[in-house]
Specification:
alpha+beta, five-stranded mixed sheet, 425 residues, binds protoporphyrin IX containing FE, globular
Length: 425
């Protein structure tokens, strides 16, 4: 894209931002959520949305809900559709050096943005690789990766838990599942971190360019991987998708986007189970003592941390037709933001919702993996990795403590520490 076009689009970006800021200053709770500083705790503003009712319409027409019942309904209802909503999709064209002539986006172009019946058949191609049997078969590998990385934490001085452990484990696991070259691992970590930072939209010209380069790198990388799998198919999900492309049941763009979604979705959010759990457990010593006394509580810790701090804070749906919701009339095409993180703290469902309590009996009802047809395909893998990692971490380092404040991912959607210094012994 030429510099002139960049400048033109950037004018649009700044105008939109200015409108949101003005509406926020005028007390619009929807705009106030959309202008939460990246990396800041959003729960205070989510509560303002809840205080205004089950469904709140912002001045821009965007609707938002913090209600558990309403989020659940929107996510499950066929009156609402998933749609490519990524704010980076502003006429992005590939940079000149890119191998392929399209820029593929992991969310907008994969089955994450498709709807039934297309969504159902695309998801069926991938889902068997995340079945309970597959997860049982992966357990030993995950335990091995976790054990190797615990050694890196075993130092007298503080160490960054996220860089050395929380990001490493899930990215190595998904890399192995997709049959990717472990030597490319540093590349994946960079892509995941950059994607997490821009998934809620580019803020300025530099971020737009960075996003374009990131998507170009990802698209090129998987274009080469897919070519190799077509020549030498293996027993892996990428080879399976490549054969679906040859049979005509998947597009090549869909295949490239799904590879990206599995790679990035596979570790960026999962790392936050570990980071958020360490923050929660160290802030709540009685909960941490209960866990270290009975490490079989690891699954409950994972569910409660997913409820307490959703790694993906919200999800968006669009009304498929003119419809009603919470007594409001919604025109076809109206976007509805389901605040998953706020639904998980809805006092109508979770008693004392701000309290982190690993013995909470209904923690597993959280909406952190969404609900309905787009329920996270990798939920079983994320849970297993979280359980194995946290159990092993607190078994090996029962005295583990934070050695400084967490620095959060610079994102409004992805919530978890980007850096967290810990002292393990
Ligand atoms: C803590 C970890 C994770 C969280 C919190 C999470 C969260 C979510 C959420 C909220 C959705 C629904 C998005 C929407 O409906 O708009 C989703 C879908 C998805 N997730 Fe995850 N995810 C996690 C881990 C994973 C893993 C490990 C993988 C794959 C290796 C993965 C791959 C996907 C894919 C492909 C979809 C699209 C599913 C569909 O549209 O049918 N996620 N995830």
């Amino acid at each position: 894209m030429s510099a002139v076009a960049d400048v033109r689009t950037i004018g649009g970006l700044y105008r939109t931002r200015l409108r949101v800021e003005v509406s926020a200053a005028m007390g619009d709770p929807v705009a106030q959520v959309m202008s939460i500083p990246r990396g800041a705790d959003g729960h205070g503003r989510y509560e303002q949305v809840r205080a205004r009712g089950d469904l709140v319409r912002g001045r821009s027409g965007l609707c938002m809900t913090a209600s558990y019942a309403m989020c659940n309904e929107v996510l499950r209802s066929d009156r609402f559709a998933a749609a490519p909503t990524s704010a980076v999709r502003l006429k992005l064209t590939p940079p000149s050096w890119q191998r392929t002539d399209v820029l593929v986006h992991p969310l907008d172009d994969s089955f994450a943005s498709a709807n039934p019946p297309e969504h159902t058949s695309l998801r069926r191609i991938v889902a068997p690789w995340f079945s309970p049997q597959q997860m049982r078969a992966r357990r030993a590998f995950i335990e091995k990766v976790v054990a190797e990385h615990l050694d890196r934490l075993d130092r007298a001085e503080p160490v960054d838990l996220i860089d050395e452990f929380a990001l490493q484990v899930p990215s190595k696991v998904i890399c192995e599942m997709l049959g990717l070259d472990p030597d490319d691992h540093a590349l994946f970590a960079r892509w995941g971190i950059e994607f997490g930072a821009t998934v809620d939209g580019a803020r300025g010209i530099r971020e737009r360019r960075r996003t374009r380069f990131l998507l170009a790198e990802l698209t090129d990388y998987f274009d080469t991987v897919v070519e190799q799998r077509q020549k030498h198919p293996g027993d892996d999900v990428i080879s399976k998708m490549a054969s679906a492309v040859e049979e005509g049941s998947m597009t090549r763009t869909g295949l490239l986007a799904t590879c990206q979604a599995l790679l990035i979705g596979g570790f960026v959010t999962t790392a936050n189970i570990i980071g958020n759990a360490v923050v929660a457990l160290t802030q709540n010593p009685e909960q941490r003592d209960a866990f270290t006394a009975d490490l079989d509580l690891a699954d409950q810790v994972v569910e409660e941390v997913l409820r307490w701090e959703a790694p993906a804070q919200y999800s968006v749906r669009v009304a498929r037709q003119d419809t009603h919701l919470a007594g409001e009339e919604l025109r076809k095409g109206t976007p509805v933001v389901t605040l998953l993180a706020a639904a998980n703290r809805d006092p109508a469902v979770f008693a004392e919702p701000d309290r982190f309590d690993i013995n909470r009996s209904n923690a597993r009802d959280h909406l952190s993996f969404a609900a309905g047809p787009h329920y996270c395909v990798g939920a079983g893998l994320a849970r297993l990795e979280g359980q194995i990692a946290l159990r092993a971490l607190f078994e090996r380092f029962p005295e583990l403590d934070v050695a400084g404040p967490a620095r959060y991912c610079p994102s409004r959607v992805i919530r978890g520490p980007r850096h967290l210094q810990v002292r393990c012994r």
